[in-house]
Design a protein that fits this description.
This protein is an alpha/beta fold. About 45% of the residues lie in helices and about 20% in strands.
Length: about 650
């Protein structure tokens, strides 16, 4: 039969720039299944490099390495990882346990990358630790174990997937004599159970306990002595027959997330600082877009309340006088009457305004008087709360009647008197209150729309304003689809009546579209500003992951030695970045919503929609993926042997 392991003229050269250092020189060596072999040599002799090649942690520069007659020299990283996973178990001098994992979790690592179900992993790990007298240390971390106990955990890990070949690198070097003897006894027992055991050591008393002793010096084998040869069946135990070779990645996503959470908890303060950037970014996006959407909706609702079938006729700016009323020289009530006679016009509402002083009893109050017509409430979509509004008879008889806004009522009738039927002085002229308007609130610009007194246009023109010129005419069309044609007709009519173009007409539907476009641009700007915080947070994620890779290089080497493929390492570190981003994104969403509710409490218009929240969270997730990829790729490209030798 072919030997289990066979080296044929294997050499290994390391390159440091242009300097080449040959560590192994034409090594030829066969190791049979079931042997207990010790490879002995002093530091720098090349024995650790030989072990790395035997365990597929490194590849020779030249020569052939065969495992059961199969040449592995041309295997890629994933194929070598599969070989390590199903064939080798490693026992290291420095134990190389993952410091943040418990004894049971450390033992389970090889089975994770073999795709073994969680239940089988737990059962197998507990059985191994119980057999090594560590049943009461299952949930202890390495820092809570003695050196001998840590080495036994390392041995259990080597046996997890079956471990046909146990490679022990200076297994007693960091132990006291008693613990060292116990470890060697365990290795002998493993060999008796059918494992091929290869011990790398510099101590002769350890090497003498093996059945075969190979001495190496300056990269060459100088002696190979067999003390006794036993025909021991090769091991086929543990989970070797139950692992799913070729499994795509880590056994399950929940296991990857648990490993990520464990790694993040190990540096909690640093993780919190990283989370902060994501939280600020996501919170800013959610809050700013909520406030921007709220402001947009508020203004659009007010524009919509006026109707998209309205036209607003104003004098051109060139025709304004510097009077308090700001009236136009030529726009008069008769113009409204002429407009009303045009096709597709439902009504035309003229208005004139001026600042006035109201008095009731000892209370004086400055407000705005608006002279208008009965169709005012329909044109403004503003209902009467109590009483009645100005009617046609009031217009024809120049009646001194008034309808008050809620703010005026609150100020003048603070004593609780019912305003209906009472008299107030408007610029020292008595007007009887016939109605109270429903509450409208502030305008988009912050103006109190309830701070007004409404009077008949005819009465106001004669007794308050002292002029005939009006400020605006609000026109409602019957067919909104023909509003543009109606606008052209009105403009032509006014030009003909005034013998010049001294008016301008605003289409409310055009105003709505223009405002929507402008507000969308502002929302985009606000979102872009907030997104900068997300980018900063992403850079923080990348930075923390790069530091994590640097700090955990040896852990990466251990995972690769126990069968992790490059994509397993890539997935693990990407998931760590995604976990940070997902947690930060979730907290950021809560912070953003909280900020929005706080803004609403202080009177700002805020509108929450699922879109911005989902977008912000998705962006945080994408940030973790994008900025976590480079560190994850760097981690996955580490060579196992180099990673294990890192400080």
């Amino acid at each position: 039969m072919a030997p289990l392991l066979s080296l044929d003229k294997v050499s290994k050269t390391y390159f440091n720039g242009d300097l080449a250092v040959e560590v192994l020189h034409d090594i030829s060596l066969d190791i049979e299944a079931g042997e207990f072999v010790a490879i002995m040599g002093q530091s720098g002799s090349g024995k650790s490099t030989l072990m790395n090649i035997l365990g597929c942690l490194d590849q020779p520069t030249s020569g052939d390495y065969l495992i059961e007659a199969e040449n592995v020299a041309g295997f890629d990283g994933d194929e070598l990882a599969a070989l390590r996973r199903r064939t080798f178990g490693f026992v290291f001098q420095a134990y190389n346990l993952i410091p943040t994992a418990t004894a049971r979790e450390n033992v389970e690592v090889p089975a994770i990358y073999a795709g073994v179900p969680a239940g089988d992993r737990h059962e197998r790990a507990e059985a191994l630790l119980n057999s090594l007298k560590l049943g009461d240390r299952l949930d202890h971390r390495p820092g809570q174990l003695s050196g001998g106990q840590q080495q036994r955990v390392s041995i259990a890990r080597a046996l997890m997937n079956g471990g046909r070949v146990i490679l022990a690198d200076e297994p007693t070097g960091a132990l006291d004599s008693q613990s060292g003897q116990e470890v060697m006894a365990l290795l002998r027992e493993m060999n008796a159970n059918g494992h091929t055991v290869i011990v790398i050591t510099h101590a002769r008393e350890v090497a003498e306990q093996a059945d075969r002793l190979i001495e190496i010096r300056d990269g060459r084998i100088i002696a190979d002595r067999t003390r006794k040869r036993r025909a021991v069946p090769d091991a086929a135990i543990g989970l070797a027959q139950r692992t799913r070779e070729g499994f795509a990645a880590i056994a399950d996503m929940s296991e990857a997330i648990r490993m990520a959470m464990r790694a993040l908890r190990a540096n909690l303060f640093r993780t919190i600082l990283t989370l902060l950037g994501i939280v600020i970014g996501v919170g800013s996006v959610v809050a700013m877009l909520a406030i921007g959407t709220g402001a947009q909706d508020s203004v659009l609702s007010r524009i919509s309340s006026m109707g998209s079938d309205l036209l607003l006729v104003r004098p051109s700016m060139a025709n304004f006088r510097g009077s308090a009323g700001g009236s136009n020289v030529t726009l008069v009530p008769a113009d409204a009457d002429a407009i009303r006679d045009l096709p597709n016009v439902a009504f035309a509402v003229p208005e004139m305004t001026s600042n006035v002083t109201l008095r009731r009893g000892n209370v004086d109050y400055q407000t705005t008087a608006n002279g208008t017509v009965p169709q005012f409430t329909e044109a403004k979509s503003w209902a009467v709360g109590r009483g009645e509004f100005i009617n046609r008879k009031d217009m024809e008889t120049y009646a001194p009647v008034a309808v008050l806004g809620q703010t005026v009522v609150t100020t003048l009738f603070a004593d609780g008197t019912d305003p209906i039927g009472q008299y107030v002085l408007v610029n020292k002229i008595p007007f009887q209150v016939i109605g109270i308007m429903s509450e409208m609130g502030a305008s988009a610009g912050g103006t109190d729309r309830d701070d007004v007194v409404l009077v008949p246009l005819t009465t106001g023109s004669m007794r308050i304003f002292g002029q005939r010129n009006i400020r605006t005419i609000t026109v409602k069309v019957e067919d909104a689809s023909a509003i543009d044609l109606t606008q052209e007709r009105i403009q032509a009519l006014l030009n003909d009546r005034h013998k010049r173009e001294d008016t301008q007409i605003t289409n409310m539907s055009s105003v709505r579209e223009a405002f929507t476009e402008t507000s969308n641009t502002m929302k985009l700007f606000l979102g872009s500003v907030a997104a900068i915080s997300l980018i900063v947070g992403g850079i923080g994620v990348m930075n923390i992951m790069l530091v994590s890779v640097s700090e955990r290089t040896r852990e990466i080497g251990v995972r690769m030695a126990t069968g992790a493929r490059r994509r397993d390492i890539l997935v693990q570190f990407i998931i760590e970045a995604l976990v940070v981003s997902a947690i930060g994104g979730a907290i950021g969403v809560v912070v953003g919503l909280g900020t929005g509710y706080a803004a609403r409490y202080f009177g700002l218009p805020v509108a929450f929609t699922a879109g911005p929240v989902a977008l912000a969270f998705a962006c945080s997730f994408a940030t973790g993926l994008i900025f976590g990829y480079l560190p994850a790729r760097n981690a996955s490209r580490l060579q196992p042997a180099m990673a294990l030798s890192a400080d």
